[in-house]
Amino acid sequence: MTAAAETAATAATAEHLLTLPRDLLFDILVRLGPAALGRIRCVSASLRRLLDTTDFVSLYHRKHFLNPLLLFLSNTSSRISCYHYNSGSLHSRFDSGSSDDSVSVFSCDGVVCVICMSKIKIHDPVIRRSATVRFSNGSDISASTGFAFGFAKLRREYKIVRLFEKERFDRFHYGPVRDALCEIVSIPSSTIWCGSKSERSVKYVWRTLGIRQFDFEVLTRKGNVCVDGTVYWLIGERRFNPVFIRILSFDLETECFGIVCFPREYSDRSVECVGLLEMEERLCMTDRLPWETKMVIWMLCDEGRNIWCKKCCIDLSWIDVRDFEIVGHVGHGEGREGGEIVIKIGNSDFVLYDVEKCLFRRMEIAAKGKDLQVILKRKGLL
After folding, report:
1. CB-based contacts of 287, cutoff 8 Å, min separation 6
2. pLDDT tens profile 311-326
3. Residue 10: what pLDDT?
4. Which of 159, 209, 211, 363 has the fewest CB atoms within 10 Å, i.e. the most exposed one?
């Protein structure tokens, strides 16, 4: 049978499957593993739309226990370990590709992006497949000031955003100035995992979005957060002036920048005293001075009108506030409020804070590593 005939036969089989009752079809597809399901997505657009429905995704996640995973970097090697959030047991391990301390780990929709000085690696811990991203136009990623990783739902593309600066001579000021530049690479989700190998290499090209004349510094050392297809960074003015806190936004669909402001009447903190957090699929901001024992979490309820509301206030009087970090939030499910906030204390202790009950509980997890990096929350299927 020729390749064309085989493709036509596969498409005919797919159309025949779609004639089955919906409940029966779900019962068949839910028995398949994530890797097989990923291949079925490539058969036809009708099957892909069916697999993207909320009913099927919820059913599949319940059956296969695709609960959130926690990631640890190893102390002695380049291995990254994934642990189950509920039980604390080991789920899987994969190689980051570099033992350098400069490795940065990001996640979006259950997929990990590991960025080191020489290459970028994307890994899906559920289907246990990896892809090494290489670039044909040879950008020097070691000179970057920051990265971000996210998923554009409408385009169904993973996007890696790179921020960097470039010095030039300005004739008007008659001296050197530094311009903020941004590059982006788009990786279609339909092509990154195709093929039979568990690890593959793909080549893409950086696209420059042009020079941005920013009068502030992007505080990449404080990290970023991706919420529903938009990446957010904290920014500080080059001339220190804490009139209000500013947040730089980047829409992965339109590839446009924006500014979100935090009203001064809510807090007079400087940008160094706050942090960003994704919670209930909304942008949140943590607000606490270093010597205070309470932390306020604000939620952006309406970005268009710049309306913030106080989500909760966490009492931290029983822990050492000099050595703790908000790692992430794990919700109860789509459309449901509450959930738990993961807090790292020191290097190896973790507690969970229930937002609704205002209670702490200790997380028992047998992991030894440099740090807890990210929480993987799979919201859909690839």
Report:
1. 267, 269, 273, 274, 295, 296, 297, 298
2. 889 888 877 766 777 8
3. 57
4. 211
